[in-house]
Structures are given as C-alpha cells and as structure tokens.
Amino acid sequence: MTVFLRQFVVIAMILALLSSSVQAGQQIEAPDFKPAPTAADCTYLRNPAEFETSPELHRAQLSMWTEQVGNQVAYDLVPGGIRADVASSPMPRKNFIDDYIFGRMERDGIKPAPLSSDFEFLRRVYFDLTGRPPSTNDVYNFIADKNPNKRDALIDRLVWTYEFNDKWTMFFGDLFRNTATSSNIARGQQGRDAFYSYIYQAVAANKPYDEMVRDLIAGEGDSFTYGNVNWLVGTTVAMGPAQDTYDGGAVNAANMFLGINVADCLLCHDGARHLDALNLWGKSAKRMDMEGLSAFFARARMTRQTVGNASKYIVSQVATGDYMLNTNSGNRQPRVPVGSLDRVMPKYPWNSGTAVPANADRLKTLAATLTSDIQFSRAAVNYIWEQFMVQAFVSPSNAFDLARLDSQNPPPAPWTLQPTNPELLNAMALWFQQSGYNMRLLMMTIAKSNAYQLSSSYPGEWKADYVPYYARKYVRRLTSEEIHDAIVTVTGIVPSYTMDYVGSLWPWPPISWAMKFPDLSEPRSNGTVAQFLNTFGRGNRDGAMRDSSGSVLQALKLMNDSFVTNRIHNNNNGSNVQYILRATTNQTTIVDHLFVSTLSRPATADERAAGVALMRSLGNQRAAEDIQWALLNKLEFIFNY
Amino acid sequence: MKPLNEQVINRRIFFEIAGAGIAGYFLSPMDLGAQIAPTTQQPAILLNTAKNVVFVLLPGAPSHTDMFDLKVGSWTPANFTPTILSGADFPSALLPTLTTQFDRIALHRSCQSNALVHSLLQTWNQIARNPASAGAGIAPNVGSVVAMENDPTRRPGQILPGFVSLNTGGNSIERNGYFPARYAPFDVTANAGGLANLQHPDGQASFNERYQVLQAFNQANPLRVDFDQMRDFYASAQSLMNDPNVNNVFRFSATDQQRYGNSGFGSSCIVVRNLIGADMGTRYFQINLGGWDNHSNIYQANAGIYGPARQLDLGLGNLIADLAGMPGDGGRTRLDETLIVVKGEFGRTVGNVTNQGGRDHYAVHSTLFAGGGIIGGRAIGGTTSDGRFIDRPGWSQDRIVGPEDIAATMYSALGINYTTKRRDDPLGRGFEYVPPTSNWAAYPVVELFQ
Predict the structure, then answer these.
(1) I need a surface site. Which of A455, A541, B343, B415 has the fewest CB within 10 A?
(2) A606 touches chain B (CB under 8 A)
(3) What share of chain A has pLDDT > 70, as a percent?
C-alpha cells in the first residue's frame, strides 16, 4: 500500500515550481507560464475528489464502516437458525467470478466470511437490484421457501421489475449527468425529460450497453424529441471558442465511457511534468493525442431554437469543419499551430488506429471505435461491480491508468497494478463484450456469485488489507432516494409529488418514489422533501457528486422531519402502525411485525423483550408509534449490508 | 496538545462536548499510541491574537486588478469610482460597504498560485497543500484541524461543532480527511427561521420518550460493537435540540437579512456573526461565495463581476462592522478576536479584457484580511503597475505568498503550531499541518499584525 504512495514522495511538488527568493524590485515570474497566460481550466473536474481520493483511506473507512454495521446486525438469532452455515473451506464456487475471487483468497491464505443469512441476502439484493426494501410478505415468503435455488430465482425475478428499471435509470442518469440546468448548459426540463425517457426505455428493454453509448455519441435530432442527443448537448462548454466544446465532448466521452479522467488534464497540456506521479499512462501522453479525440466532435453542431420559454438544441453533423489550432482565450491554454500543422485531425488516442477517412461521419466512427475498445467494457464492468460489491476494481471509477491494468505486464516499480483483482476485471471485460454488453446478465452474474453473497460480518480478525480480496460483503449507506423510498415502503404512507410544468412535453403524472425523479432538483413542487434528499448527499450531477458522509443534520432529519414523523402515526390512514394495531392486540406480534416490516429481519430475543415491555408500560398505540420511529432511526436502517 | 486517541476515548470529555459529534463515518477511531511532536526544523511563530477564523473562499477566482489590487486603465468602468484609500487604489463604488470599513481591512497583494485549475487550487487552499502531493488524500480541511485543536478547551454549554461551513451549495468543500467525523464541517443553510429540524413535531416529551426507546433497542442488540458510537451520532443531534440557545443563535431578522444583502452569502454572514457572538464552540467558519469566473462580459451591468461583488460587499462589510461593535473578552471586540481571510484560488488576466469581454485565469492574486489583530487601512505587498508581476513581496520572507503561508498565518493567529507533525495518520507517513513546499517552509505573514 505504501509502495503505491512512494511515488508521490518522489514528485515533490511537480506543480509547484516557482523561483526562489527574490531581490526587492525584481519581477517574480512563475516559470510554468509565459507572461500573462490567458487561459487554463479543466472545467469538468469540479470535484477534486475525483482525483484525490486516497485508495488507502477509502479502504480504511470502508473496512471500519463494515466492521461496525456488519457486525452490529443481529441476523443469526432467529430461533431455528435460519442463518446459512458457516463457510466450509473451500467456499463453493457458483460461477467464474467465484473462481477468481476465492482462488485469489486461497492463494494468499485469506479466509472468506461465511455466506449471508437469508435475511441479510434478501434485504441486500432487493436494495441493490431494485432500490427498495422487501415488503413484510416478501420476507416471510422468502424465508419459508424451501427451494434450494431460491436465491437465483429471486434474482431472476427482480431484474425484470419496474423498480429495477427505476433504479438503473437513476444510475445511468447519474453517469451521463442528466440535468435540466447545469453550470455549463441548460437542457431545459424538456430536454432532461427526453433524456430520462430515452434512458428508461433503454434500461427497460435491456438495450445492449454499447448500443446505448453509440446512440449517445452519434445521435442527431432535436433534444426535446431525441433524448439521446442530450448527452452531446451536455458536453457544451460556455465562455470559450468552439474548440472548448469539442474538448468537452472528448472529456465527457473519455471520463464517462472509458473511465479515463486524465483526458481532461491532457487537453490543456502534455502529461509530462504534470501527471508524472498520478498516471503512468498519462505522463507520456500528449495534448495533441487527446485533441485527436476532440477532433471527432469538430463537425457536430448544436443549433439552439426557442420553444416558448425554453430552448432546445438541434444536433446535427456538418460536412466541413476541423479542430483548428488557433485560439488564445477561453477555458484552456492557447492552441497554436505545430510546425506546419494548423489543425488536428480525428484520431482515436488508444489505438494505433488508422486515421478517419475524410468523408466519414466522425461521430459514428468514434462511436463504433470507442465501443469496441476493451477499456469501454472494463469501465462499464467496473461501474457495475462497484454498485454491487461497493469496492470497485479501480477506484475512483473514472481514474483508470491504462499502463497498470495487466498482470501479465505489470508496471515498473514503484508503480503497482491498479485494480483490486486485475485478472478478474479483464476476464469480466472480455466476457461482458462477448455477451453483447448485456447489462442484466452482468448484474445477475455478479449477484448470483457467492462472492456477492458473503456475509458482511466477519468471524475472524479483520484487517483493512483484506479489502481488495472481497473477503466479506462491504457495507454501503443507502442513497438518498433509497432512504426516501424505504421510509415510504415501510410506513405505507405514499406521497404524491407534482411533476407537471408549463411546457412539458407530455402531461407528467404525479410520482411517489424518489427513484423515479428525472433529475436531482426534484421534487421542485416540494422543497421540504427536496431538502431531505439533499441532506443525504445526493449531489446534483454537476458540481457535487453523491456523498455518503453522515452528519448531525441527517440525524436531525430522521428524528424530527415531518416526512418521517407524520408517517409513524396511528391516525395517519394506511400507516404501517395503524395496520398492525388494527390487525392484532398481541404485543409480541406487533413488535415482530414492526421489526420485519422496517428492518426486514425479526427482532432478537432481547429486542423483542424490550419491545413488549414498552408496549406494556406505554400502551399499544403509543409504544407502536415510538417503536416505529426508533427503528427508522436505528443505524442499520440507512445501511445496506 | 492531546493525542487524538485520548480525546476519542475520554468519556468525561465526550459527555461534556456531546454536541460536537458528527459521525461522518460513524466514528473513525484514531490509531492508538500516536506521537505528536512539533518539528524542530523551524521554530514556529505563534501570534495568538485570535480565537476564531472566518475563511471566505471565492470559488471561480475574482479578478484581482478589478478588486483588491485595483489597476486603473482604459478598461476600468467609471462606475467603479476608483479611490485612493490610505495609499491603496480601491473600487469604492463597486465595494462601498467595504470602503467604509477600510481602516479595519488589510489588502495583501503578493499572493500567487502554482496552477490555474479551479478545483485543484480550491482544494489546495482548504487543505494547505498540493492536492496531488503525498498524503493530500487524507488531509483534513484547515477548519477540521482547528476544530480538533480547540476541542480540549471547550467549556460546558459550548455544544456547537468546532467547524461550521455555509453557503457551500453545490460546491464541494474539503472535509475532515482522516480526522474523526466530529471535526467535519457542519454545513448550515442560513435561514431566518433558524436551524431546521431542531424541534420534534410531536413535542419534546414525545421525543424524549422515543429517544429512550431507540436507546433501549440499541442496548438490547447483543451484537452491537460499541454503544457509544451510535450515541455519538445521535447524541450530538439531541444535545443541539435540548439547548434553547441553539435555535436562537441560528435565527435572524428580516431587517438584518436586507441589510446584509438578502443573499445566501449575506445571510450566512449573519449566522457567522451570531455564532461568534454566542461563543458556543465554533472556532472556524468557511463561507463560499462563487460566481467570479468571468471569462466573458466581466463588466456587464448587473452581471459579470458586479453580481458577486455586491453580495460580497454587503455581507462581508456588515459582518466586519457588526463584529467590531460586539464586545469580546477582556475589553477586545469580537472583530479583534476573529481573523477574517477572504481570497479566491487565483487571479485573472490583466490589462484589456479578452475578445470575449472577460478575463481568464492568472496566477497572481490578492487576499483581504480583517480582524484578529491585523492592522487595517493599508495594502501589503504589491504588483507592477499593470498587476502582472509581484514586485514587492512586502514581508520578511521576501517571496510570493502561497496557500500554505495563508494557512500558517491562520494557525499562528489562533496560537496553533503550524509546524506540527502528527503521527496518527492511517498511512503511517506523518501528517503535517502545513507541509513545506518544494522551495520553502511556510511562514505566517506576521507583517499584517505589525
């Protein structure tokens, strides 16, 4: 681990190169810049965490969360022992993922956690696939099911639910940064809606991921009708020459589709003297190489048209136009001719590929080339793996270093291989490619592996060093939307948020589930709930990324926000509390129901005893409301373990 | 100064300061047996003039030659009304309130950044080191260090978090790095009604009962790791609720709201004023004010630089004025006790505007200081007549001033040893409050106080 960081010691301050002490009156000039430099801005790197996350700190924190929450949950105290057996060694292998994961553990003498209990697994896979907790009936039915393959059967069923569509539409909305307004461009609510609709239909139909990305790169048409062209619209860079926008296309393509964020740096300067300690591949890359990628965007035009109070963009390709080296203002360093070259022709930076024929449709060519690049598959696999396994192969997931991925060709010391399991990443990338970029199949394969189904509780002594082995299931905090929707599901009080607005492309019906919001400014019709969601760090798909950090404000919201407190009342018609109080007066049953409905597990004996004691002293109604509130505020409620 | 591990496990201190727990990662235990020692390389200068720091970050990077280092030329709009104040050029009509406060303000004009990338330098300024350097990935915000350093001196009743951030909106703000979550920035959205969700809608009695129920279940779960850790997270929320002073301190009147400019930034300044006056445990405030990235149309009426400048002027100007009128300890004012530092991440190009009517990024820039013992009414350091190069560093180190020096100045004013190197970081490499750059060791700008 420390080897990885030794390189940082070596750089000293590559970026801090200033002349030393100065005599009075002497002008001080930073040697990196010519007098009066005019521009330099990586406008897309709004969150420095994209660069600066320390993998070691991340692992330490992940470890610690998992230790605390994973060990906290009482999953094995159900009478009769529903919990799965402690893992015998070796762990049975259900698919090739298990071969690589457990193979590596056996090679290095690391013991895996036991398999998850049915309770653990059920709640986890529901959240991971559908973004919702299981209902009380789901829990009872699953536990009672005697089918030895019930876990696989559940996964097969869940990937074809409407909730699955919502969750993964939200995921791709995040990845492609679908917003109505952002700091660089306004798609308008109509453009956002069209993009949302495109993504939803693609997810629902299990559209191959490569097709989806080709639609985004090479789409044409108006942004209110053809949702996919909104991706290109989002690459616009304001307050600069057209080349800044072409660069925007390159950066967004490299970042989102290939997981290569250094493309942004390379569009201002060569890698040398800047990326030397950050990216082994990038440090020898040249600005002109990356401009070759930008040049693919040089014939795309986005013509703005007013529609009522909004603006839409007509995206089209024109026959002429090049990436000219003739700028001296705007968001990036000046672009000047190099020798006799006054422009950069399109050339995909990651193949020693042939140049693009003169009359070829540039974006269609790029779309085909990029989506057949194995890195495209790796990046996609890495994103999805991270959603399920919490610890990505390469983290942050857009910080791939292409020179450090191949275990057959490891990088020279002090550089190390980047992925947690390079062989598995590459095997999955090839497999995903060959499967036709089948998203559901990828997710099903991950979820069906025993690696995914390990418990989050680890019986032995745990070390943060074990994190790359996936020796246990890592814990994650639920997203804002999952928390909102879990509270709604559990308490049974379903909200209704007005979504319609003047000028909308279709009449938007009200929606009830946060996972259905087309962007993260919703619900615009309900500021309190929007604030609730923001408090849990959903970000804005623009300058602020999703963040799982906790805060006192979150505690205050869960304890005191009317969104929560209204829903626990017996006199709120349809509430979970009302339901159980009407169903029975048996205090044990009431307590059990509250636990299963809220936490998807039964109470432990002690919890049950405490609950029943409360019912006796406070009376059923008051106790039931209090217990419902308390369980929503229990730490495990907002975590997925 | 106590090692962090002792602070974490000392239950007596914990219950006294229960309000400070912010479980960002639901409590990250520090390594035991940590050794902390100041380095002996360079004796630190501890000015010890201030109790609080207000750091106003101006993301987007304001044009220095239009604001704190005004250079008048053919491009300067007449409505700036450039004025010479104590020998320093100042756009008195662009920043009228600050003009009235000028004798409390020092302009420091020999700052320079090492790169021109927004996010990189914004982070750099908040964590006092190059974000791409060793250990930067775990480095906490300067505010978190201040909060941690001040934790042992809390008195009963000082239950607010040591580090409060405001008006951060969609901008990222650097957080607590590897420090325990209680030192993370407590992000406040300024609202005339006060802090949201401090009252339980079903009443205090109902809340107390329910909180007991929660605790009962936490105790009943036999697999819990450490009950204290759960309690830390919720206990701080509960103690904020219990203290009636808390809600008052976050409230403000409509009159104040108007006077401070009726903006998110302005209202945040009111909250900062209140928190400083209430002296309830917060020692470091970070307020962000963006909108300065004027690559085009910088002099456009009611837009360009005018928009953010107006917000800055009304908010900051009134904050300085109000603090100066509030009594502190021992005959000083609250302004005397509070060092205010205002800067962007770099400057903007000088001379004539670009072909888009704006200014692009530029390394040279200025910092505004007020309060905390600085001597106001002047400019320190200076640039050439066009604002292009620093020709008068204006201080003992005779070089440009970087973010590390600004941090050293803040620490020094607070009496915190900026050469401290902790040995409790998870990477085992040591963590320096202000690391040396490749060319020099950081140093406080003592001249501001002389």
Answers:
(1) B415
(2) yes
(3) 86
Which residues sit opposite B52 in a β-bridge?
B338
SS3 assignment for chain B: CCCHHHHHHCHHHHHHCHHHCCCCCCCCCCCCCCCEEECCCCCCCCCCCCCEEEEEEECCCCCHHHCCCCCCCCCCCHHHCEEEECCEEEECCCCHHHHHCHHHEEEEEEEECCCCCHHHHHHHHHHCCCCCCCCHHHCCCHHHHHHHHHHHHCCCCCCCCCEEEECCCCCCCCCCCCCCHHHCCEEECCCCCCCCCCCCCCCHHHHHHHHHHHHHHHHHCCCCCCHHHHHHHHHHHHHHHHCHHHHHHHCCCHHHHHHCCCCHHHHHHHHHHHHHHHCCCCCEEEEECCCCCCCCCCCCCCCCCHHHHHHHHHHHHHHHHHHHCCECCCCCEHHHHEEEEEEECCEECCCCCCCCCCCCEECEEEEEEECCCCCCCEEECEECCCCCCEEECCCCCCCCECHHHHHHHHHHHHCCCCCEEECCCCCCCCEECCCCCCCCCCCCCHHHHC
pLDDT at A45: 36
| Chain-chain contact of A8 with B201 (C-beta, under 8 angstroms) | no
Instruction: Find the closest chain A residue to B403 by CA distance.
Output: A16
Asked whether the beta carbons of residue B119 and residue A610 sit closer than 8 angstroms, the reply is no
Partner B, chain A 495-514, Cβ-Cβ below 8 Å: none
Q: Which residues of B touch A618 (CB under 8 A)?
A: 209
Rounded to the nearest 5 percent, the helix, strand and coil shares of chain A are 50, 5, 45
Given a cut of 70, whether residue A79 has pLDDT beyond it is: no
Find residues 522-561 of chain A whose CB sits inside 8 Å of chain B.
531, 539-540, 542-545, 549-553, 555-557, 559-561
Q: If you average pLDDT over residues A119-147, what whole number do you get?
A: 96
- Considering only CB atoms, which chain B residues are within 8 Å of A40? 115-117, 360-361
- Judged by CB atoms closer than 8 Å, whether chains meet at A57 and B399 is answered as no
CB–CB of A52 and B224 under 8 A? no
Confidence of residue B29 (pLDDT cuts 50, 70, 90): very low
Mutate to test the interface with B, among A477, A552, A617, A638 (most CBs of B within 10 A): A552
pLDDT digits (tens, 9 = 90+) for B59-118: 999 999 999 999 999 999 999 999 999 989 999 999 999 999 999 999 999 999 988 888
pLDDT value at residue A352: 62
Whether A341 and chain B come into contact, CB under 8 Å, resolves to no
DSSP line for A391-427: S-SSSSTTB--GGG--TTSPPPTT----SSSHHHHHH
Give A65's contacts in chain B (Cβ within 8 Å): 25-26
Of B213, B360, B392, the CB nearest to A39: B360
**B188: its two tokens:** 């406040």
For residue B360, list chain A residues with Cβ-Cβ distance below 8 A.
Answer: 37-41, 329-331
Residues B385, B378: Cα–Cα separation, whole Å: 17
Which of B132, B177, B201 is nearest residue A15 as measured by Cβ atoms?
A: B132
pTM: 0.86
Closest CA to B98 of B269, B254, B327: B269
Task: State whether ipTM is beyond 0.90.
Answer: no
Q: What's the confidence (pLDDT) of residue B108?
A: 97
- B295, A562: Cβ pair inside 8 Å? no
Q: Is the pLDDT of residue A43 over 60?
A: no
